[in-house]
Amino acid sequence: MKYQLASRMAGMKASAVREILKVTQRPEVISFAGGLPAPELFPVDEISKVAQEVCAEEGRKVLQYATTEGRPTLRQKIADRMNKIYNSDLKMENILITTGSQQNLDMAGKIFLNPGDVVLMEAPTYLAAINAFKAYECTFKEVPTDDKGMIPEALEKILETTENVKLVYVITDFQNPTGICWPMERRKAFMEIMAKYDIPVLEDNPYGELRYEGTTNPSLLSMDQRGQVMGMGTFSKTFCPGLRIGWLACSPDIMPQFVKVKQSADLHSSAFDQAIIDRYMDEFSLDEHVKEINALYGHRRDLIIQCMEKEFTDGTTWTHPEGGLFLWLTFPEGVSARKVFDKCIEKNVAGVLGEFFYPTTKSDRHMRINYSNMPDDRIKEGIRRMGEALREVAAGK
Amino acid sequence: MKYQLASRMAGMKASAVREILKVTQRPEVISFAGGLPAPELFPVDEISKVAQEVCAEEGRKVLQYATTEGRPTLRQKIADRMNKIYNSDLKMENILITTGSQQNLDMAGKIFLNPGDVVLMEAPTYLAAINAFKAYECTFKEVPTDDKGMIPEALEKILETTENVKLVYVITDFQNPTGICWPMERRKAFMEIMAKYDIPVLEDNPYGELRYEGTTNPSLLSMDQRGQVMGMGTFSKTFCPGLRIGWLACSPDIMPQFVKVKQSADLHSSAFDQAIIDRYMDEFSLDEHVKEINALYGHRRDLIIQCMEKEFTDGTTWTHPEGGLFLWLTFPEGVSARKVFDKCIEKNVAGVLGEFFYPTTKSDRHMRINYSNMPDDRIKEGIRRMGEALREVAAGK
């Protein structure tokens, strides 16, 4: 039969990264494409232990339907943890448990966006955010960014001259895909500008805890006095992604809208998975666990940058992230990222083409590289192959 | 700050049932309001065992990001099981794992509904479906129903005279809230009418396996030769709801739209919870487990109807479900359900007011009663109190 789809479906694409992952899952391919955490650090034995305890001590309660807002003790722990790390002042009532932090993107789109409304974003930015918002038929306006995040003057100008801006989406810590982190003065300047507008800010922060050097800045959420900033968080990078537990931290003034939308989207997130994380945090130290993750990822970042310094002799440059999962390559002027990508695939190595991360710009100069999910020997061999590909493209082969 | 919400938010309400549940959770209230399965039957020890095995044997894989479509072996098991029970011919490729079957309602709305489009529904129907679709600013048209489901002639007339019908939503087995089940001739008549139209049918079936007597009819999905019917299913009622694992069964022609929408909504459903259910079905018999559930619920239905026959002496009538979780009260003409409800609350007993289950009709004659979640003594005492309330309302007190 002939299906007639809603008009919003025309703009929605299958995730480019997920499609690429299918190509790059052949074992002979060294893939820097995914955004996967290192599975060797998943606390598998601890999860097994607490899962048993959940069943033994509260199984019949935890396996029943639960409240949409989420498990109270877990919401409290998240509030406490965010306050400690990012200097915020959250209470349990500010926290909504979500099905991965991805769910927040869909919910924010649903709550704030009419067709034609404008979303401001960094460029490049998280590609699944672009797709999630597209479902609500918005348009995007890229805010020019440099190596410190959104440029305040550029943001201000766009706000002054653009109608129907209904949401500003930012990733302030170790941004996906660039790995850059907004310094304090940028955060302040951003908040000062935004304070002049009644436009909500969605601060996505899946990577902030993965800092291997330097000091953590307060979140935008912590600097907000007027319920303007909604903060997204997740256990996917600090614990494991398979459980799909994230959260939203926001003002009680807007929380009921998210609860309503979540009710109709999936009633509540897995109560069993929530209980596992909650008990893990009672019995083990998530802080210590995150330290282990950071030691490993810091090592991998050092190694991959060392390798790139040696292998990337064609003028390609890269960001130097102090945390997170990604760095961002910029190829020399005139070198097509698409060509590099194709040459890489020939050599069984892959990153993600930069073009997917731009809401509107057509860019053919970049590639995203993930280094969190790769043992040393494969980092070395992968970057060697990529260097070879770069030299061949530069030589016009 | 002043929040400016998308226009769709004006139509969305917090779930009436979830709000009522808060009132009725006081321990002194005997509540027939929820739609909760009996927790004493949750296979807690079995879940504990398979959770350990998942961790020990495939922990690092299961706790990682996973495909949006879901765990292949679980998808296959669902297809096989549906084929056995409902006479369908599904393959793994027809099954998408979802975060509860509620997620399907949101996804179907997103995929098929533009503002102003029309959704046809039974009246009364599942209230969270009404809310999920409302997020897409549709309008509803109630198809007159009798004790066998949608009335074919009425459906045909509506289809002939209504523009922009984009979705038909039905619950064919032990409907929520009425408990009625469509007989075979109704299913056939429905499918014959629908075959004349390119309008997708969403067949919600959370209760079909909970049949305590009689024989199961083929699903609409199994009767469909043209990719028109999308079938929804869930483990919430046959296993436990806390894990939030449901599914969609549909044609490969429309599946990619659901995958795309699910990607942007939550990437994938809990891989850990999927693995638990998959392994449970390997090691234990879900069929035997469902038999136990049906024995208990059948007993509770018998008991509650017995009690109602004795206590409801005012002319109130009820449906006699052959399965599922609910029955539906109709009060005598002139008796306000709202008055009965208030009187019931005075006496610390509750059901759900019927009015919440109608997309458009204003109805004040009905109440939904859940009996799956209640031990015998509380059923007896609850119905005794309710009978007292009914007699007092009839007497004008």
UniProtKB/TrEMBL annotation, chains A, B:
Keyword Ubl conjugation listed: no
Alphabetized GO MF terms: pyridoxal phosphate binding; transaminase activity
Needed cofactors: pyridoxal 5'-phosphate
Keyword entries, A-Z: Aminotransferase, Pyridoxal phosphate, Transferase
One GO-annotated biological process of the protein: alpha-amino acid metabolic process
CDD domains for this protein: AAT_like
The keyword Transferase appears for this protein: yes
Superkingdom to which the source organism belongs: Bacteria
Ranges for domain Aminotransferase class I/classII large: 41-385
Family label: Belongs to the class-I pyridoxal-phosphate-dependent aminotransferase family.
The protein's name: GntR-family transcriptional regulator
Organism encoding this protein: Acidaminococcus intestini (strain RyC-MR95)
